[in-house]
Structure formats: C-alpha cells, structure tokens
Amino acid sequence: MTQDSNLFMSIGKQIKDEYGRTIGKTASFAVSPNGRIDSVYIEQGNSKIIKYPAENLKVEDSEIILLSKTKMEATTLSDQIPLIWRKDQALKELLEKKKISPEVHEDLHKSFDGVLNQLKSEGQTLMENFDKETARCAREIKELNYALVNLEIEHEIGKVDEQSYQTSFTTIQECLKAANTEKSELEAIKSKLSNILLGETPPLPEQEIEGEPTEELKAEEEAQKQALTPPIPSPNLPEPPVVVYVKEVGESST
After folding, report:
1. Does the residue 244 lie in any domain?
2. Closest Cα partner for 60 from 11, 117, 4, 129?
3. Total-model pTM
C-alpha cells in the first residue's frame, strides 16, 4: 500500500475488512530505519495480537481497511502471467522476423518459460486457498442461517422481545450480506484465475479479474478489432479487371 501518515494516527482505532466487518484495533507498528511502516500489529479483541504486512492495509475516508491477501495475490498473478506470456510471444515474433538469433531466442524463451511455470505453480497453490476461503464462507452462511431461524422461533414463541429481535435480526442480516458478498467475489476471482492458468491465451493484464467485461470494455475491444481490419483500397488505385464469359446464341456443343 502507499504509505500514509494517517496510519501513525490509527493507534487504538478500529480496522475493518473489505466487507465492513471489524477485525480489531491498531496496537503498534513495525517501522524500518527510514521511517517506512513494514507491518501493523492488530489486537483482535481476544487479547491476541496478529502482525499484518502494511501492503495489506489501505486508508480510505479516514478508515483503515484490511485487504484480502488471497485476492491481492490473485490480482498480481492475473497481471504477471499474461505479461510473461505476451513477452514470450513477442520474442517468437522477433525470431520469425529474423531480428534475433535462434540462440538468443532459445535462452530468453527458457527464462520466460521458467518464470511462467513458477507463476502457474503459485497459481495452483492459490486456487487451493480460494477453495478453503470459499468453504469458510459457506460454513459461515450456513451457521448464520441457523442463527436467524432460531431467532425467529424464539421471537415467535415470545422468548425474545421485539426490540432485541429487531437488533439481532439486523445484525445477522448484515453478517449474511457480507459473507455472501465475499463468497461470490472469491468464486468469481477463482474462476478468472482458473481461466488464466488453463487458457491458451490469457487475458490482457489491464482486464480486471473481477466481474464480467463492462460495456465500455466491449466497445473498446470492438474498436480494436475494426482497427485491425485491412483498410479499403484507395480509390486512386485501379480496380481489378473483371472477366465476363459470354456464350454466343446458337452455339452448339460438339
């Protein structure tokens, strides 16, 4: 993350995740000699302090938000893999145009191929992390649904008063919304990353891994296709000759 002086002023303040859930409070920092924050210590409310890399945090509207490490790694891989693939393709084109020697091509191709295989290996491990995170969300959603049903039952038989019921109902619904949103995003990111790892032609780095292509992106892609279409011949050039075959009337075949 970009270093922000607000981080130094966040001691004792709450830190939330991307879905609005409270993670804990800032307890301290790990600061390098040059004054850069390397890590943040977060107290999670159970007398347990966990250290998080500073790049996993961002300051947004005076709030400190803890970003998902799994999602950040997926975004990085979704940029790096297509970039290496494109470089290797450009290297091949240079060889075909005889701008580089076969020896240079072979050396660089092995280098790109090695990096690409390493990134794909990291991607496979990350896919397993996505499975674990998605399973966690599914369990959380199931438990919250049970909690909601039990709340409804106790309220129905008069064991829970209306004010307590409304407060608990709102809390559970907010938690359900956060868990469902997180699960959906994890599944979408995993699907995109899987396409990159298995696809023959990975998407361009600038294409976002989350969600479907926007209408603007589709329009841009269509414009690129039209730009690649061969231009119409100039009117100054002569038209190609047209040959017309005419069969004479009365001509008989032999």
Report:
1. no
2. 4
3. 0.69
